[in-house]
Amino acid sequence: MTPREEKAAIRNERLALRDAMTPEARIEGSLAMAGHAGDRIEFDPGTVISGFWPIRSEADIRPLMARLRTRGARLCLPVVLDRETIVFRELVVGAPVVKTGFGTTGPGPEAAVIDPDILLMPLSAFDAAGNRIGYGAGHYDRAIDRLKEKGRTPMLIGIAFDCQEVASVPAEPHDVPLDAILTESGLRMFQQVS
Question: How many other CB atoms are found less than 10 A from the CB of residue 54?
Fold first, then answer.
C-alpha cells in the first residue's frame, strides 16, 4: 500500500469513529477543549488566530475561539475559494457569517483577508509525534506553504477527538508536523526536531 492509500484508509477509519460519537459526547468534548486550552495557548494581544466553524462531526471550537478573543486574539476563519485555495478572513464581532462553499461557513467577501500566526486545524487523524492526516484536499498544506513563502511560520495546533489518534501516521517528506494537538483530554505540545 502506498502512503497515500494508507492515509486514505486511516482517514476513513478515524472519521467513521468520530462520526459514531454521540452529539452529546462531541459537545462535552468541545467544551472540555475550551477548558483545557483557553488559557494555555500562549500568544500576545493582537495575535491572529485562525479557527473554524464546525462541519459534519468536527469539534465545535467556537467556545474556545470566544475565550481566545477575550484574551486579545484577532480571529479569522478559513474560506475555501476553490479546490486549490483557502484564504483567512477576519471574524469581527457582529459581522455576519455566510456559506462559503464546500460545506464551510465564514466571513463574507467584505471581510479583510489576514495572515494567521496560529492555525487551529481540523483533521482526520494524528499520532504522538505530531504527524497529521487532513481531509485529503491539501488546502491547509498549500495555505501553510503560502504563509512560509511570505516569511511566516504559523504555530499549527490540530483539533481532534481522542478517538482520532493512531499509532503512526505514514508521514511523507512534504508533510508539515503539528506543534500541538488539542483533544478533549487536553493540549499536548510536540517537540519538533530541526
Answer: 17
Residue segments in the chain with a per-residue pLDDT below the cut of 50: 194
Distance (Å, whole) CA 70 – CA 68: 5
Cell numbers describing residue 14: 478515524
Angle at 64 between CA 141 and CA 101, to 5 degrees: 45
Q: Which residues contact 175 (CB under 8 A, 6 or more apart)?
A: 131, 132, 141
Question: By the 8 A CB rule, do 175 and 138 touch?
Answer: no
- pLDDT tens string 53-67: 999 999 999 999 999
Task: List Cβ neighbours of 23 (8 Å cut-off, separation of 6 or more).
Answer: none
Cβ-contact 108, 98 below 8 angstroms: yes
Are 106 and 97 contacting, i.e. CB atoms less than 8 angstroms apart? yes
Q: How far apart, in whole angstroms, are the C-alpha atoms of residue 138 and residue 64?
A: 25
> What are the start-end ranges of the E strands in 70-160?
74-80, 86-91, 97-101, 104-107, 118-122, 125-126, 132-133, 155-159
Residue with cell 499520532: 127
- Provide the 3-class DSSP secondary structure of residue 145: helix
Residue for grid cell 467584505: 110
- Say what the pTM is: 0.95
